[in-house]
Design goal:
The protein is an alpha/beta fold. It has one domain (8-120): Rossmann fold. The protein is built from 5 helices and 4 strands; from the N terminus they run βαβααβαβα. It has helices at residues 20-34, 43-47, 51-57, 73-79, 106-124; strands at residues 11-14, 39-40, 63-67, 87-90. Strands 2-1-3-4 form a 4-stranded parallel sheet, sandwiched between helices. Helix 1 crosses helix 5. It is globular and about 35 Å long. The protein starts with 10 loop residues before the first strand and ends in a 6-residue tail after the last helix. The model has no long low-confidence stretch (mean pLDDT 91).
Length: 130
């Protein structure tokens, strides 16, 4: 997989709210993008109905959503423009605890990243070679 060929990659959207796991969701999505596993796009732009970003979300590319908690803000932003993700993950369902005014545990993100990466590879039938 050429990490610069984003046309072949699924889109990833993430929560980026104010809790520890919201920031972890965002950082996982950024890492998926930087390592060429998925192309990150802007869920705030979708929620704000920015035409080019809504069009990208509605393009038919496979979509992964990573939300921090059961509020599923990223998933609901997409739903508001008629888009359902192919894969929807909620970090609290992985046993992570949502807290405010604190950073996430750095030791936890690598495990969560690997788990998300494995889910992406299983659902889209390819293995990232980075």
């Amino acid at each position: 997989m050429n990490k610069n060929n984003y046309k072949e990659l699924p889109l990833v959207y993430s929560c980026s709210g104010c809790s520890n796991i919201a920031q972890m969701a965002n950082d996982i999505a950024v890492k998926l993008d930087r390592e060429g596993v998925a192309e990150m796009s802007c869920v705030a732009g979708v929620g704000g109905k920015v035409k080019s970003l809504v069009k990208k979300a509605q393009s038919g590319k496979p979509i992964i959503v990573i939300d921090g908690c059961p509020l599923e803000c990223a998933k609901n932003c997409l739903k508001n423009v008629g888009v359902e993700p192919d894969v929807s993950l909620v970090l609290t369902e992985e046993g992570l605890k949502k807290t405010f005014h604190e950073d996430y545990d750095e030791r936890t993100i690598e495990d969560e990243y690997q788990e998300v990466k494995n889910i992406v590879e299983m659902n889209f039938n390819w293995v990232c070679k980075v």
